[in-house]
Amino acid sequence: MKYLPLFFGTALFLLCPPWTSLAWDGFDAESADLIEVSPDRVPSRGDTVDVRSHDTEATQTCLVESVIRNKKTVELVVRTPSGAVRTLVMEGR
């Protein structure tokens, strides 16, 4: 009986792993659309990130052109597959 909570805790962790829903919240500076960036970390120049728009429910894989850290935000300048440049303003890390 004393191992029952451990069993249920382990089962819950395996059924709902925390790494499946990790995303970094922010918005597009030009359109003000709410977005999420995966993976949930500050990327470096040259990395690729998945940008999901809440308005269109579409996901794009973008190339990171630059990362600018401010006091409360991080600005990611990314290039989309079509060649467009977007500035994403993210929560500070």
| DSSP summary: helix tally | 1
Helical residue percent band? 10-25%
Q: Specify the structural class.
A: mainly beta
**Total DSSP E strands:** 6
Poorly predicted segments: 15-20
Largest sheet: 6 strands, antiparallel, barrel
Kindly estimate the percentage of residues that lie in beta strands according to DSSP: 35-45%
Explained architecture:
The chain is built from one helix and six strands, in the order αββββββ. It is mainly β and 93 residues long.
Key features of this structure:
93 residues, mainly beta, 6-stranded antiparallel barrel
Summarize the structure.
This protein is 13% helix and 44% strand.
Layout: helices, strands, pairs:
Layout lengths: L3 H12 L8 E5 L5 E5 L9 E6 L5 E11 L3 E7 L5 E7 L2
Antiparallel strand pairs: 1-2, 1-6, 2-3, 3-4, 4-5, 5-6
